[in-house]
Input
Amino acid sequence: MRGQLTPGAGAAQDNRAELDDAYGCSFRIGATHSCPPIHAPPPSRMSESIESVLAEDRSFPPSPSFSEAARVKSREQYQRMWEESIHEPDVFWGRAASEIPWLKPFDEVLDWSDAPFARWFGGGQLNASHVCLDQHLETERADKVALIFEGEPTPDGKPEIRKYTYRELHREVCRFANVLKARGIGKGTRVAIYMPMIPEAAMAMLACARIGAIHSVVFGGFSASSLEDRILDGGCEAVITADGGWRRGTVLPLKPAVDEAIVKCAAQGNCPVKTVLCVKRCGNDVAWEPRRDVWLHEALESVEEECEPEPMESEDVLFLLYTSGSTGKPKGIVHTTGGYMVGAYLSTRFVFDLRDDDIYWCTADVGWITGHTYIVYGPLANGATMVMYEGAPNAPHEGRFWEICDRHKVSVFYTAPTAIRAFMKWGDSHVEKADLSSLRLLGTVGEPINPAAWIWYRDKVGGGRCPIVDTWWQTETGGIMISPLPGVSATKPGSATQPFFGVDAAIVDERGKELPDGRGGLLAIRKPWPSMLRGIWGDEERFRATYWSKWAASGKPHYYFPGDGARKDVEGNFWIMGRVDDVLNVSGHRLSTMEIESALVSHASVVEAAVVPRPDDLTGEAIVAFVIPSGSVADAQATVEELREHVGVEIGKLARPAEIRITTRLPKTRSGKIMRRLLRAIASGDDVVQDTTTLEDPTILDELRAGGKA
Ligand code: WT7
Output
């Protein structure tokens, strides 16, 4: 019996080559982040502050005209609002919450007496699909386009485009909800959603929300065994899927993986799944179990168009979303209704400065938290028009994203640093071909962005005129926690800048004591916030241990531990330095791998770099860098010494890699995160003993092992 997933299995264990290829790209944002360290860092490694050596002093204030028109216009206004959100949360959040519609008003803003279990907006009732859809129907937004969908295929050069107004989306969601109800799905039922990026994915989420079912979206690039684990852990009684989705010109089958997952669940003797609801997207052949499987289009023929939203208590669960930690099986992060919706609504409104005529595009997949909060719940709660794209950024060509921005006149664009680095690599010509003058605001999320990519994004995509919001947050936080406000913040390449409203972020040491400005340390959140996680599904102990125990022994049991290292500069800007297990220690100096990578990537001949420690007798740990060159491997071998010196100049001699290995690829998960634990093993000359099934491309290990040492 498979009680535990293998470590690191945020984790797809996927043997299907087509899926690897299809979703094994690094452009999906919002990926699960960390991999278990191969050498668990000794406690002493964590005990001091992290040394920060990256000096970045470029600063880009918003233009006066942007600030003038923005929702938050000045630093004073931000400061006033932030102070109120921290010192009078009842006032601030009470007001924010009253901007979304409640079916029954709440009587209390926050009850933290049962910490770490927060109760926000107690006594209130609402429904997330009502907030996203019904509220707009009585306004002039009823016939505004809510969703613009673009499919991947472009037969005859013509893309498939579908648009839904709020009224149409509402109707589709009600019908979808009635299909679920007819199958006995109702309040509290868990439903897995395993879908391509098509409108029905968003509709499925909203339909669940409408009837009070708890959705658990599983990224369509995950394998049958990942799906199996999530179905079992959540006790999902239904799976909503599609026959397949389009990816780089081919069909990526999904229904077969659902069938396989269910067989695996059944083999364990307790398969909870009673219904598989399938969207016909690609027309590929699928096996059919008539008592269990239902075509959505057939079921829709016989349902009513009305479906009253189920009144949900503020703390009723809205969804589960699995994320991997540094060890153990994925955690089913629990988000509830009221606090999550208020957080999603407000952060979307202020961080993206959304207005009614914006066309907003977040390139994430709905399988990640970014897709939940900033494709579905946040934008729709604000009555925005959002774009959804099914396919790959390089299909049929490497300019597809810019073509989409141009075609739909996208004004707010939100993507991931890893995607930006790929666009850089593909060359400026693709960006230059498109008219991107509609863009007014850019965003990034998912990992620290290296300044070189940030500047490229600003200059080439944003034409030098669009503010960039570098948004730090997590699956667990539900919404953006640290980010510029575009009308206020002087942005700095590589800094997520300032805490969002209600976020009491601090840089602390192992004892929870705040460190002086400029010193790197552990990021802590010292107060509860509305969209915070409410638990790990079925595992209260792990919830307490993972997030609330770090400083408990130091008398701070209610400091939230996100697991990231960071520093704050004298102006109060936060610089995220990566996961704390991505920190290395050279001669007693604690260095962020990200900063060294950033220095390497700032060299013209480097496209991407990954830095890991290897044990060293003299210095404790030595730095090993894996580098993808912009030119040929052979040419790059000759520049290795130059690269070392470059890092020396950018950061300091102590940060110079002891070894640089030139490679054409880096080992990545399907969601695009570099698998450092593998690189650590390779750098140390160890055998790779841990699970490699989450690797996008397993053949890469041989190349890296053989890789040119210098
Ligand atoms: C981890 C959370 C939030 C949705 C996407 C990822 C890293 C995220 C940033 C950023 C530096 C970032 C952190 C965080 N991260 N955004 N702007 N700058 N690091 O969600 O899979 O839960 O991962 O991603 O390490 O802890 P996730």
